[in-house]
Write a structure and sequence with these properties.
heterodimer; A: 413 residues; mainly alpha; 23 helices; 72% helix; extended; B: 860 residues; alpha+beta; 5-stranded antiparallel β-sheet; 21 helices; 30% helix; disordered N terminus; TAF1C_beta-prop (chain B); RNA polymerase I core promoter sequence-specific DNA binding (chain B); WD40_repeat_dom_sf (chain B)
């Protein structure tokens, strides 16, 4: 019996930060378990050992903070700090992390210099042997220090460029700037080698490299950041690369290949409209076909249902495709959507709502619905009826086109 | 890396400045069902754990007391434990049958053994006599019986205890919550959807009117739908003007469409072989649902297109975890779902069901998870309305932390916050901003009633915590607002307020001059509480003096709480769910032939009605002689009366009454007194002098048969047995007996005290009982349990809910829930007072009478 309960209950308080993927996998840890047991086994007696006192004190602090009783919290915090003075080394090793959080808080409140000092102190914190997790933490602290160096660097840069200074002053300022660049680049370069999401760090680093004319270095950093398989999938990495290449005036094929990957990761990104235009302009037919898919994929997402640009692009492109005798592309794109787009985009409710809120959107959607669902579609019928009432000119041409070219009727032919 | 979990103070924050977890008429109305259906907290850790010395107080360690449980099991369910073995051994034992001859040496006659046992269990009795036969039998059979039970049942019991204990620590069935809010056609109207009933199988639709300044008002009474299983989760959603309610039970899922008028329209019901663990309604397409079961299957379900399985994997995603809990929700793409298990979250594409989707979250290093951390809840935070937040956000809750993830940036959480809840966070809700450009409140509810509120801001960018997170008052925090009660009442109230939180629904009423938030909470006891939170300008920087989290009570709320409390205290205490049958087979087997037919009839009747077998069904007991009982001090037991009165604090009144009453009829009283004294002394003299001439009944010692005691044994079969007694009793004693009987409550009131524990819900429906006749309005039996002392809500039912009769058609029993008679309140009170006078009604007659009979015997 005891083995069972040991196994069920046994949990180790030590080393909380160990990742769960380690073998053997521990049982689920329930923080409220001890309370459960205490209420049963203690018979009202509460143990008063030191560890318990501190944990109770910590609970009080948390409770007071969550109830926004700041005064009370600070009183408890004082007691807590007193009790912590003689605590084991393990807790003291937490100090860098606390410093980092404090620095971030200071940064958030615009106290950059204090934050910098804090990070410097945290970096030089030594207590006993450094554990692996602490090593990572120190790297992170260094990276944030690098970020602050970059911040100073960019401030200096605007100073240098905006003020008319004599040669000597400019020279000194540039020297100063350069030293900041060196400090920052060492730390930033270190952190972006570790797999992770380092958007701000990468952007800062690339900006500095670009400033000093190291285009190849910048491109390399961005390419690694986007294509390294060890890194978690990150759409921003591809966007940074695309923007960099666009600025460089890279060939369109290259741009398309970058955006193709982004399309696979985040088809709803607003840059996809740009991607559509790129594909439309391209000479290759497969790109033209992809252009339709890109538009349809944007409109699949709930955040983009009322994106008027996407709808007008789609209406225009459908017309172009049908005129260009590529009706099968439309049918292909439609086949995976025909069971849910009608309710998602072209319901009677939405027709009424769109017509009331945004007439142009309603017209564009009505045209698309007419092409995809035929003239019997509720959305199309409602909008064309309403348009007829107010004698909207475009209605007639729209109706005519839909009658002739909708993909339903052409299937039957 | 989580870089954004530093919070900053915004200008405004939601504070419970003037909130009160009061219960208004809502709490009242909703708890009504429990008058006929008392809630009990069922299993607690105290019931399972070993309560001995805790060896290591520093380390929490639970030991499940299997031996004690096995002991209880053997005592309480001996028929199950030993029955099969008995069947095997039956051919070697003669239990009184005539066919088995004694010639067969393999057959042992047990008649004497059983007679020794005589139906009494000598458990714990130091004077229990063991005959040599019994000793021999237990020595021989003990090992066989013990081993079998231990081997076969021990394992099963162990397994059962393990699952019970796990469920006690983490009851995952109520994940997602069973309270839903459906906004109505008018901006300040809506409906609450929630289950009640002991089995949580009654789904209620309660119309509520919100007010910018006053308390929300329940419009009429809820309409009910009785379901076949317990409601675990209620999900509501209004898409494209269509209000839908989806309900998850253990093996059924169902979908209703709510019309603004008329009853909810059932759309479809899904039956599952394996237990369903999660259901969610699509925020994109009306009527589309995601359902998942313990088999690891996730299906997309819509009434139009039916079921489509899009994922099936009995194994967990990241590492092996024994839990078969699964959860499914939607994403920003209507054809892509998220599937969660305890180890992570994964995308599942409905267009390519066979594909194994990418992981969105995993318990591991990316999110810097702790050891033993597991996913407890996952929720998609996007809605069809354009929110200030990106529609790609997902919430993941573990027992330690809360994570916000963007589906475009999988695995690395955008935000991590240690919620510090001391119960599993199984409820979460993101609310629209209280005013334009305000941060969005995100509520987190723990099963233990703990609540947290966060404020999320950040349009288009990474979401951030705006303003410090807050802990909201939980139900138990409202305890000081109630009047001080006597210990029993206090405990009842505490238990009730501590009931697990099984539902959470918050509403931000649109168009309020000062932004407020209404928070409805459903407890497992079936109460719905609410509190109102006002948005308060940030004052923390200047004046730390004001206590922002002070909870204030409005007078109306206090009054309402008192009413609710009053009804709560009138709920009869819960009866033990099962009482072991203590009548012995002895009586059945050796019954005389003429009684057998009667017994069988009684048995059949009880079985047909599905109720517990009562002593009355088995014909009167053979006349055995009860021990002498306490005799009252004369016909008028003044001392007890006075004590009783002073106990009820009516001592002075009793005294006054006594003084006034004693003057006039004193003479007559004294005369009567003398007569009874005489007669009793006479009878007692006679009984002793009878010694010589009574020959036959003498195995029975000549004690005075005490009818008083007899009454308590067979109170319900009084009428029957009375005549029999009269036949057996010498004529001289009959007068004494009648005098005694006169002291006792009349048979009618005795009937009133028949416990109806067999079927608690039918208690109020049995109009045919004679005891009920004294109550007016017996046409409306349920009024006693379902009442509304509030005149306004009562009239509201008739004026505003004219078509609600049709609502009840689903549940014919509830049609008589309301009584239009003005005698309404008095009905309620009279009924309850009768209950209070007769505390004996809670003792199941058979089991309950046993101790009375047994106790005096101990000394013999």
């Amino acid at each position: 019996m005891d083995a069972f309960s040991e196994e069920l209950m046994g949990f180790v308080q030590k080393d909380n930060q160990v990742e769960a993927s380690k073998d053997p996998v521990p049982e689920i840890h329930l923080p409220w378990l001890s309370q459960h047991i205490q209420s049963t086994g203690s018979h009202g007696q509460k143990g008063t050992n030191f560890a318990q006192t501190t944990s109770i004190c910590l609970n009080f602090i948390q409770e007071a903070l969550l109830k926004h009783q700041w005064q009370r919290a600070s009183e408890f915090l004082q007691c807590y700090l007193q009790t912590l003075e003689d605590i084991n080394s393990q807790k003291r090793q937490m100090a860098p992390e606390i410093s980092l959080q404090h620095a971030l808080y200071l940064l958030h409140n615009g106290m950059v210099e204090d934050a910098y000092r804090n990070l410097n102190q945290a970096e030089s914190w030594r207590y006993g042997e450094m554990s692996a997790s602490q090593e990572k933490l120190i790297k992170l602290i260094q990276a944030y220090r690098g970020l602050l160096d970059y911040y100073t660097w960019s401030k200096k840069r605007t100073e240098v460029s905006s003020f008319d200074m004599d040669g000597f002053a400019t020279n000194a300022a540039t020297q100063d700037m350069h030293s900041y660049f060196r400090q920052a680049s060492v730390n930033l370069h270190e952190i972006i080698k570790i797999p992770g999401v380092w958007d701000t760090f990468v952007k800062s680093y690339v900006e500095m490299l670009e400033f000093y004319g190291d285009q190849d270095g910048a491109r390399q950093v961005l390419t690694d950041y986007a294509y390294d398989n060890n890194f978690p999938s990150n759409p921003n990495a591809h966007i940074y690369l695309y923007k960099f290449l666009k600025k460089e005036k890279a060939p369109e094929d290259k741009l398309i290949s970058v955006l193709k990957i982004l399309h696979q990761i985040v088809p709803s990104h607003k840059i996809m409209l740009e991607f559509h235009m790129l594909l439309k302009k391209s000479n290759k037919e497969e790109h033209h076909k992809l252009g339709l898919e890109v538009l349809l994929a944007i409109l699949d997402f709930s955040g983009c249902t009322e994106n008027i640009t996407a709808w007008s692009y789609l209406a225009k492109y459908l017309k172009q495709i049908i005129k260009g005798k590529h009706r099968e592309w439309v049918q292909e794109g439609w086949s995976s959507r025909k069971d849910w787009w009608p309710t998602f985009h072209f319901s009677y409710y939405l027709a009424k709502k769109n017509w009331k809120e945004n007439r142009i959107l309603a017209l564009k959607k009505a045209f698309t619905s007419g092409i995809l669902l035929g003239k019997g579609c509720k959305y199309f019928m409602y909008v064309s009826k309403q348009g007829h009432k107010i004698r909207e000119k475009s209605i007639k041409t729209m109706k005519k086109f839909v009658m002739k070219h909708n993909i339903l009727d052409s299937e039957e032919h | 890396m989580e870089t954004s979990f530093i919070s900053s103070c915004l200008d405004c924050k939601l504070l419970p400045q003037n909130s009160a977890p009061f219960t208004k008429n809502l709490g009242l109305l909703l708890s009504l069902i429990f008058l006929s259906d008392p809630w009990d907290p069922e299993l607690m850790s105290q019931d399972l754990l070993f309560r001995g010395r805790v060896k290591q107080p520093a380390r929490a360690k639970a030991t499940i007391d299997v031996i004690e449980q096995l002991n209880h099991f053997l005592w309480d369910h001996g028929d199950i434990a030993f029955g099969p073995l008995g069947m095997l051994l039956q051919e070697n034992f003669n239990l009184g049958e005539k066919k088995k001859s004694r010639k067969n040496k393999m057959v042992m006659n047990t008649e004497w053994l059983l007679r020794d046992l005589n139906g009494y269990q000598p458990k714990g009795c130091p004077w229990a006599h063991l005959s040599t036969r019994q000793r021999r039998f237990s020595l021989l059979g003990g090992t066989v019986l013990g081993e079998e039970v231990e081997n076969l049942l021990g394992g099963l019991l162990h397994e059962e205890l393990e699952t019970r204990w796990k469920r006690l620590l983490l009851d995952e069935a109520s994940t997602g919550g069973a309270l839903g809010w459906v906004p109505g056609a008018k901006p300040h109207h809506g409906q609450l959807v929630y289950p009640t009933g002991r089995a949580h199988d009654q789904l209620n639709f309660q119309k509520v009117k919100l007010s910018p300044t006053n308390e929300p008002q329940a419009l009429g009474d809820p309409s009910h739908i009785l379901l076949r299983g317990p409601v675990r989760q209620v999900v509501t959603r209004t898409i494209q003007g269509e209000a839908l309610v989806a309900v998850r039970s253990d093996h059924h899922c169902a979908l209703w469409k709510l019309e603004h008028r008329g009853p909810p329209e059932p759309l479809q019901v899904l039956e599952m072989e394996k237990e369903a663990t999660g259901i969610s309604l699509s925020p994109h397409l009306p009527g589309e649902l995601a359902v998942c079961t313990r088999s690891g299957a996730v299906c997309l379900w819509s009434p139009q297109h039916g079921l489509q399985q899009i994922h099936k994997d009995p194994e967990t995603f990241v590492f092996k975890d024994p839990s078969s809990w699964r959860w499914a929700d939607f994403t920003a793409h209507p054809r892509v779902l998220t599937v969660a298990d305890r180890t992570g979250l994964r995308f599942a594409d409905a267009r390519a069901p066979s594909d194994c989707g990418e992981l969105l979250f995993r318990v591991g290093a990316e999110a810097s998870c702790q050891r033993g951390e597991r996913v407890l809840l996952a929720q998609y935070l996007g809605t069809p309305d354009p929110l200030p937040l990106s529609p790609t956000l997902h919430l993941v809750c573990t027992q330690f932390s809360l994570y916000l993830l963007d589906e475009r940036l999988p695995l690395v959480p955008l935000l991590k916050w240690n919620h510090g809840l001391l119960s599993p966070p199984l409820l979460a809700q993101l609310l629209p901003p209280p005013y334009p450009e305000a941060p969005l409140p995100l509520l987190l509810g723990g099963l233990g009633g703990h609540l947290r509120m966060l404020h999320l801001s950040g349009s288009g960018r990474t979401p951030q915590l705006a303003a410090p997170p807050q802990s909201l008052p939980s139900l138990i925090d409202s305890l000081p607002g109630f009047p001080v009660l006597e210990p029993h009442g206090q405990q009842l109230l505490q238990e009730r307020l501590r009931a697990p939180l099984t539902g959470l629904a918050a509403v931000v009423p649109p168009g309020c001059p000062s932004p407020t938030m209404l928070l409805f909470q459903l407890s497992a006891a079936g109460d719905v509480f609410y509190q109102r939170l006002w948005l308060q300008p940030d004052t923390s920087s200047e004046s730390a003096v004001s206590e922002p989290s002070a909870v204030s009570w409005k007078p109306r709320a206090v009054a309402c709480c008192r009413r609710w409390l009053k009804t709560l205290l009138q709920v009869p205490p819960t009866l033990p769910s099962w009482t072991p049958p203590t009548f012995s087979q002895h009586h059945l087997r050796w019954l005389k032939e003429e009684n057998k037919g009667k017994v069988q009839e009684g048995l059949r009747a009880a079985m047909a009605e599905g109720r517990l077998l009562l002593q009355g069904d088995l014909a009167p007991l053979p006349p055995s002689d009860p021990p002498p009982a306490h005799e009252p001090f004369g016909t008028e037991d003044k001392l007890s009366e006075r004590l009783e009165a002073s106990w009820e604090r009516k001592g002075a009144i009793w005294w006054d009454g006594q003084r006034d009453g004693s003057r006039l009829p004193r003479k007559r009283q004294s005369r009567e007194k003398r007569r009874t004294q005489l007669s009793s002394s006479f009878s007692s003299v006679r009984s002793t002098s009878d010694f010589s001439d009574v020959n036959s009944p003498l195995p029975h010692p000549p004690k005075t048969p005490s009818p008083l005691h007899r009454m308590s044994e067979t109170s319900q079969s009084l009428e029957l047995s009375q005549e029999l007694w009269v036949k057996n009793i010498p004529r001289e004693r009959r007068q004494t007996l009648r005098d005694y009987l006169a002291v006792l409550p009349s048979p009618d009131s005795g009937n009133c005290s028949i416990p109806q524990f067999q079927n608690p819900s039918s208690q109020s429906l049995s109009t045919s009982e004679p005891g009920k006749c004294s109550v007016p309005c017996s046409q409306n039996p349920r009024t006693q349990t379902l009442f509304s002392p509030l005149p306004e809500s009562y009239s509201a039912f008739y004026s505003q809910n004219p078509n609600s009769q049709s609502l009840y058609s689903q549940n014919p029993n509830s049609q008589s829930l309301y009584s239009p008679e003005p005698a309404f309140n008095s009905v309620f009170h009279s009924q309850n007072s009768s209950i209070q006078k007769l505390p004996s009604r809670h003792t199941p007659s058979l089991a309950g009478s046993q101790p009375l009979r047994k106790k005096p015997r101990m000394g013999f």
